[in-house]
Design a protein that fits this description.
By secondary structure, the protein is an alpha+beta fold. It has helices at residues 8-21, 37-40, 48-54, 56-61, 87-94, 149-157, 179-189, 193-198, 200-203, and strands at 74-81, 101-108, 116-123, 126-134, 168-175. The radius of gyration is 20 Å and the shape is globular.
Length: 229
C-alpha cells in the first residue's frame, strides 16, 4: 500500500514471500491505496477450489518447485514420516523460536491420540493446533464409501501397515530456512526406536501437554469431510 516507502530489495522480498504462500496470487503495487477499483473489485479472479489446490504449502508437499522464490532467498521444506510424534516434544517444538519461518501448515499424528488427525497452522508467532477429523485407519471399513474410487485410491497411497494412513505431513515456508536444522528438530520429536517398539498401549501414557480435543460426530454416521483423504 506504500510501495514508494519500501526499499526495492525489501519489496522483492515481500513479493517472494507472497509467491511462496500463493504462487498464483496477483500482486499490485500501490501508494496510499491509489489503485483502480476494477483491479480489486468483482475481478472474478478468485476461485476457492483453485486457490486451495494451488497454495504454496500444498505445492511443496506435492514436490512441485516454485522457482520464482529462489532469488528472494525464500525457501520451503516438507517433512513426512510414518512414525508418531511424542506430544511433549512436539509441543516444545511448536512453542520454540522458529527463526525465519513465516508459515507452517500440515497434518500430524500424536502417539497419544491414535484416533484423530492433528492439524497445525503457524503464522509468524501465532500457532494453532486442532483436530482435523479421524484417520481412516480409525474408521471401520464398513463406513468407507467403497464406490468412491478416488477416495479409496488416496487411502491406499497413504496406507502402511500396521498403522494405516497415520502420518506426518508438514510444510515450512520462510527466509533462509535452516532446512537440516528444522528436519533434525522434527526427527527428535518422533518416537525413538525403543519408544516405537512399545506400541500404542504404552504410548497412551506419555505426557501430553496439548489441550484435549473435542470432536463431535453422530455415532451412526461419520461425515466424509471430517476425514483425511
Amino acid at each position: 500500500n506504500k510501495s514508494s516507502e519500501v526499499k526495492s530489495e525489501d519489496l522483492k522480498k515481500i513479493k517472494g514471500v507472497i509467491k511462496a504462500l500463493n504462487p498464483d496470487a496477483k500482486c499490485l503495487e500501490t501508494n496510499y491505496s491509489d489503485v483502480g477499483l476494477t483491479d480489486v473489485l468483482n475481478t472474478g479472479l478468485f476461485d476457492f477450489e483453485k486457490a486451495s489446490e494451488a497454495a504454496g504449502w500444498l505445492k511443496e508437499m506435492r514436490g512441485e518447485h516454485i522457482p520464482e522464490t529462489e532469488e528472494y532467498n525464500i525457501s520451503s521444506l516438507s517433512f513426512k514420516s510414518k512414525r508418531p510424534f511424542h506430544p511433549k516434544r512436539f509441543m516444545d517444538f511448536v512453542q520454540s523460536n522458529l527463526d525465519g519461518i513465516y508459515r507452517v501448515k500440515g497434518c500430524f499424528w500424536l502417539a497419544t491420540r491414535m484416533e484423530f488427525v492433528g492439524q497445525v497452522s503457524i503464522a509468524g508467532k501465532l500457532a494453532e493446533i486442532s483436530p482435523a477429523g479421524k484417520w481412516w485407519a480409525a474408521v471401520p471399513k464398513i463406513e468407507w464409501d467403497l464406490e468412491d474410487e478416488e477416495m479409496i485410491k488416496s487411502i491406499q497411497e497413504n496406507w502402511e501397515e500396521p498403522y494405516g494412513d497415520r502420518r506426518q505431513e508438514l510444510v515450512f515456508i520462510g527466509t533462509g530456512v535452516d532446512k537440516e536444522g528444522i528436519r533434525r528438530k522434527l526427527e527428535s520429536c518422533l518416537l525413538t526406536d525403543k519408544e516405537f517398539s512399545l506400541g500404542p498401549e504404552v504410548w497412551a501414557g506419555y505426557e501430553d501437554p496439548i489441550p484435549a480435543w473435542e470432536f463431535i460426530e453422530e455415532e451412526s454416521d461419520v461425515e466424509e469431510e471430517s476425514l483425511v483423504h
